[in-house]
Amino acid sequence: MAIISTLAVDFRLALRNILRQRRRSVIAIAAISFGVVAMMLAAGYIEWIFWANRELATGQQFGHIQVSKRGYQEAGQADPLAFIMPQDSQALSALLHTPGVQSVAPRLVFSGLISHGDSTMSFLGMGIDPVLDPLSHNLIIVKGKPLSPGEPNAILLGAGLAANLGVKAGDTVVLLTNTPGGGVNAVETHVAGLASSSLKAMDDVMVRVPIAMARKLLRVNGSHVWVVSLKHTELTDSVLASLRKEPSLKPFEMVPWTRLADFYNKTVALFSRQMGVVKLIIAVIIVLSISNTMTMSVMERTVEIGTAMALGVRRKRILRLFLLEGMQLGVIGGVLGTSLGYLAAKAITAVGIPIPAGPGFSHDFIAMIIITPGIVVEALLLAVVTTLIASIYPAWRASRLVIVDALRHNH
Q1: What's the pLDDT score for residue 357?
Q2: Could you count the other beta carbons within 10 Å of the beta carbon of residue 172?
Q3: Which of 105, 107, 231, 252 could cross-link to 132 by cystine, CB 3.0-4.6 Å?
Q4: Of residues 393 and 254, more confidently modeled
């Protein structure tokens, strides 16, 4: 109880010293708050980049989990028709009844030539379910309308491919492709709309068709992959573990989106390292600012410290008082900084950050600042830990003063 009582007294004394030196304390708290706000905004922007790339990967490309025949992910591009899965099976039913699964959509990948008038170009096609496949809902429709079950003979073209062909929504085109038997098959269809996947290279070759049309064109009955969409991206690992225990799925390969999204993984690795550098710079700024503030405080209060020690206050208590003072500055600055950072993030997100299309992207973006609980905790820890570190040397210096020299410091 005596120790708790002493700590409570020291806590109040440290707070009184902060309030007594208002100008210096305000400057110190402002420096901490500025660092915390800068860290939160930078981390929140990078968190949005991670979120946007994650949604692009899961919504417009891979889904959350892809189920296919073993070897498809490695060799499927070279010989896709060798990895056709059945249209209906017990395994598909098991996927649909797994907790956390929102939908399972078949995809059929193919390539060939597309003709309009005198123009002919190569394309990369994909047969999808207009209702179940997340790709149907997340493509950006530039002109026209998306695929729908009511129009089984309509297709979507990438905006770049359409521009190169001179095609607009409503035009008629011909798709030509090879069949598993080595023959050639063609189908005449009309363009429901022009779409963008955000990636320019994809938009220049993209064709999306109803999977029934793709099966008819290729003369097959199955699909290459079953795209599993989950209720939440965070469920990927747990659902994948459940699927791997299902006996009917043992012959198949189940790959999470994290293994397929190479661009996302490299983006996370790059920006995580950059954010580490930003945190280090902010930490150094706070340490230097608080260390200077605390050192000036020790110099101005040398006589006061000497008097306290002459009256019997132990050196370790002097050390503790200055450490508590630094920690309180960190807590006050951290709480103020996180509050201002959260409000600034909300204001910036409401306005939006216009981002021009970068290399490889087909359109501009409106960025946001996403503040997560983890960012808030990191910001608070950054403020408290750095101020505590910055207070160690000034506190140690105060506790090592010689009483006689301290008492005649101003004489």
Answers
A1: 65
A2: 11
A3: 105
A4: 254
Q: How confident is the model at residue 174 (pLDDT cuts 50, 70, 90)?
A: very high
Give the span between the Cα atoms of 377 and 392, in whole angstroms.
23
Can you give the three-state secondary structure of the chain, one letter per residue?
Answer: CHHHHHHHHHHHHHHHHHHHCHHHHHHHHHHHHHHHHHHHHHHHHHHHHHHHHHHHHHHHHHCCEEEEECCHHHHCCCCHHHHCECCCCHHHHHHHCCCCEEEEEEEEEEEEEEEECCEEEEEEEEEECCCCCHHHHHCEEEEECCCCCCCCCEEEEEHHHHHHHCCCCCCEEEEEEECCCCCEEEEEEEEEEEEECCEHHHHCCEEEEEHHHHHHHHCCCCECEEEEEECCHHHHHHHHHHHHCCHHHCCEEEEEHHHHCHHHHHHHHHHHHHHHHHHHHHHHHHHHHHHHHHHHHHHHCHHHHHHHHHCCCCHHHHHHHHHHHHHHHHHHHHHHHHHHHHHHHHHHHHHCEEECCCCCECCCEEECCCCCHHHHHHHHHHHHHHHHHHHHHHHHHHHCCCHHHHHCCCC
Contacting residues for 180 by C-beta, under 8 A, at least 6 apart: 81, 84, 218, 219, 220
Helix axes 302-310, 315-351, angle to 10 degrees: 140
Q: Can you read off the two tokens belonging to residue 298? A: 């020790």
Listed residue (112, 207, 205) closest to 156, CA to CA: 207
The pLDDT, as a whole number, for residue 151 is 84
pLDDT at 395: 78
User: What confidence score (pLDDT) does residue 77 get?
Assistant: 74
**What does the radius of gyration of the chain's CA atoms come to, in whole angstroms?**
32
Q: What is the average pLDDT value for the chain, to the nearest integer?
A: 84
Span 379-402, average pLDDT: 83
Give me the phi and psi of 90, to 5 degrees please.
-65, -35
Contacts of residue 128, defined as CB under 8 A and 6 or more positions apart, other chains included, come to 105, 107, 135, 136, 147, 208, 209, 210, 211
pLDDT at 359 (0 to 100): 57
Domain positions in the chain are 2-57+264-407, 71-250
Per the CB < 8 A criterion, the answer to whether 169 and 144 are in contact is yes
